[in-house]
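Hi,

Apologies if this is the wrong queue. I'm a grad student, and the batch job for Transmembrane protein from Hibiscus sabdariffa produced an output file that my downstream script rejects. I'm not sure whether the problem is my script or the file. Here is the sequence I used:
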Amino acid sequence: MPSLSCAYKWLPLALTIILESLVEFRFLVMADWAPVLIGVVLFVLLSPGLLFSFPGNNKQLEFGSMKTNGKAIAIHTLLFFAIYAVLIMAVHLHIYTG
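Support response: The file is valid. Your script probably expects a header line. Output copied below for reference.
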């Protein structure tokens, strides 16, 4: 049976290679902030009851009521997903930093 020290002699070299490749990779890739920023903006704008609520509690469309219901949450979720998918996947909107 081989000793444990013999079996793991390659480990420090492997960890060094992995860390060096990660450091090189970090400097070659720019961060894409578009999904984060678009998601935050859409989340705030499409929060049911904040700017508008569709369908509202008393009317079909209410503005600034600060009230919501289950239907409005479902519709605003679908709107969020549709707009987010179009902006990120179809339009290929990117915001790079670095």
